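Researcher: Structure prediction, please.
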Amino acid sequence: MVRIQRRKLLASCLCMTATVFLMVTLQVVVELGKFERKKLKNANLQDGHKNVEEEPNHLNPFPEKEALALGVKNAMDIGSYPVVLWWSPLTGETGRLGQCGADACFFTINRTFQHHPMTKAFLFYGTDFNIDSLPLPRKAYHDWALFHEESPKNNYKLFHEPVITLFNHTATFSRHSDLPLTTQYLEGVEVLKSRRYLLPLQSKNKLREKLAPLVYVQSDCDPPSDRDTYVRELMAYIEVDSYGQCLQNKELPQPLKNPASMDADGFYRIIAQYKFILAFENAVCDDYITEKLWRPLKLGVVPVYYGSPTIADWLPSNRSAILVSDFPHPKELARFIRQLDHDDRLYEAYVQWKLKGEISNQRLVTALRERKWGVQDINQDNYIDTFECMVCRRVWENSRLQEQGLPPKQWKADISHLSCPEPTLFTFSSPVSPALRERSLRELWLPSFQQSKREAQALRWLLDRNQNFSSEYFWGLVFKD
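Model: Predicted structure follows.
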């Protein structure tokens, strides 16, 4: 009897222990879920993507309607609001009623809205644009909008006329796009004028005892611009400290080796010690300008720039950067940099604009003042919100025209909205070792660009038919003799 009671007591204890364990586990799961959601919200905010749950009601003119919209799970009636569907799930928002001035649209990544009668526009993120899934057949009132701020190497077929002209609205790095993102990596005029990281020239001259005149920091090796080939040749004529994975000859401190640390204060202070930095883009396209240029200008380092042929239109002054295109060979560029390195008067001419806090380029000042979005500025919309609202307003504009019995406006992108020439390789007399040539990606970019032309033509032909197609059929057209 005693043994049975003991067994019952033991069983009770085990049940209680199991119950406590389950309760604790459930609580941990709940807390982890809260933590992950909080982390996701913070990530969205850091990325510049608004999360609707974070927005206070006083910013939302339609709090009740938005709450209703957020509860939509399927393509049900959402009232009279146009639906703008992110076909590429860039924002991650399952549903949000967004206010764009006097207009409002329902923004979603829920593809069940594809055939909803209120769906008026499809938004695509260029890097994720692919032939495996497209919203076909495309109805006459379906606008397509492209957001693509990235390098052409991410999706070359977008950079050809047959594909870019598929879109009605664009937001790209080109000044000619509907929403130009040319200054996407520049917070504003004040960061250019700031002297926070600027070291006196006397200090830089002293640091030259242990540092090279030039610094290079790249870990994306052998891109379409073929920058590593140029820098390798330049190294034969002048000393270069190279910290990245490409042509590395110097080590960053361990905490700064992560690419995410390239905007850290410690990284800034290392780069600010140098007189010159090799600021080479990964592709050569009009108006494709990245942090490679803006970062050294903010730090008071003279950029030796290679990239956008239109760069002179965007520099803070006509003597704020050294342009590689001005020199016929790296040997001449090296000679010029050594001349500036040994002559303080000549060198200071390239930082005079910074010392005086004067930006003489009115095009740049105007572009920063008039752009409708901000960079790392919580008081302004980010460029994704602005892109969404541009499309929303245009959808409403056409809706009102149709209500008045007038023909809708026809928006259509052209080749100036996103185009780059085919990649070109540098040819120097200095031989490249066979081992280096074999493992280099540089030989692949031109064939890749040529193939992307065929891909663009095949895709356009298929989309003009306005029918769904298989990837096998697409590739069959691309490689058809």
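Model: The chain has 16 helices and eleven strands.
Researcher: Thanks, that helps.
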